[in-house]
Design brief:
The chain has 365 residues and is α/β, with parallel strands linked by helices. It is built from 13 helices and eleven strands. The protein has a seven-stranded mixed beta sheet, sandwiched between helices. Strands 7-8 form a two-stranded antiparallel ribbon. It has a two-stranded antiparallel sheet with strand order 10-11. The protein binds nicotinamide-adenine-dinucleotide and magnesium ion (MG). The site of nicotinamide-adenine-dinucleotide has 28 residues, from helix 4, helix 5 and helix 6.
Length: 365
Amino acid sequence: MSQAPAHRLDVALGERSYPIHIGPGLTARGDLIREHLAGRQVMIVTNTVVAPLYLEALKASLGEGLDVREVILEDGEQTKHMASIGLIWDALLEAGFNRRCTLIALGGGVIGDMTGFAAACYQRGAAFIQVPTTLLSQVDSSVGGKTGVNHPRGKNMLGAFWQPRLVLIDTSSLKTLPVRELSAGMAEVIKYGLLWDESFLCWLEDNMDALMGLNETLLGEAIRRSCAIKAEVVAEDETEQGVRALLNLGHTFGHAIETDQGYGVWLHGEAVGTGMLMAAELSAHMGWLSSTDVERVTRIIDRAGLPVAVPENMGVEDFLRHMQLDKKNVDGRLRLILLEHVGRAVITEKVPASMLNEMLEHWPR
Ligand code: NAD
Ligand code: MG
């Protein structure tokens, strides 16, 4: 028995266009996956946390007649390095898989980024399907084709643009997600409203409590609208020459917090939430937002269960040091993504250093 997925979106990238299906129970919809397989050989890549929850269901739904193998990696951001990619390649070669195999990423952003990168290089490019299981990966990392791993000297320093053939988003998988991870993903959802679509932000304000309470219909709608915005931005600027940079709203400050505190102490989404507030505050210093706008941003971040104060031990110097290292700064100039108004982000190099200092000094800790 198969029911139609609740939502379907298409990412328009010419020959590399692909669909995103969003709805409850889609892990059981192997038929949606089968039509995108390159051949009979399938390698599912997942981890020790997600495998016991969803691997059997996914395998069962793929049905008969396929050669399905699996790689189960350790959990966590600290596994996102070349050695794990090596394990995926080893498994593919040991299985004797050829270039018409398909890799399926079953897990959060860590699994998705690694699987995509392994696929991009395997025999010069193998097919790849995303089955993201965290809110963050459903609204962000599974869409857009950025794949890669960390290097001891920097996050996401090795990678490739490699688009999936399909993204299958099962909203039911969020039921097992720790609430802190749900909040972290919600930061990126809020980001889309702030940077692109004020009506979406209004909708989030109306529905945040129900979303955090895991109302699946509303979560499906929030994911659909988030993916639609990301897909629109990516279709305009696949390799981040221009408008795609707006998706980094809150990320320059966020990365500073993440790096300063040590990776994993603050979740990425938590740091982005606070980072967006800092961007809003600086936008107010520029005269672009009112204090009411800043309060509005604070309130929605807070309602998503995200922190609204920076770590007590982080001073102005710490921020500046980390922000200068940000790889998004072109030619050493400070490029920031701020809000022209709620619902419209801009890339600007106009912020005077003194204004940034002033904002950082007075930020509540
Ligand atoms: P994650 O993959 O580490 O997942 C978070 C935790 O939740 C992990 O412990 C995971 O095993 C567990 N988990 C996953 N699904 C679950 C479920 N349904 N139930 C219970 N537990 C579950 O982290 P994430 O936040 O999904 O992704 C973060 C990664 O994504 C980072 O490495 C980041 O660099 C990357 N990222 C990439 C892009 C991109 O464009 N490619 C964009 C944003 C983030
Ligand atoms: Mg992010």
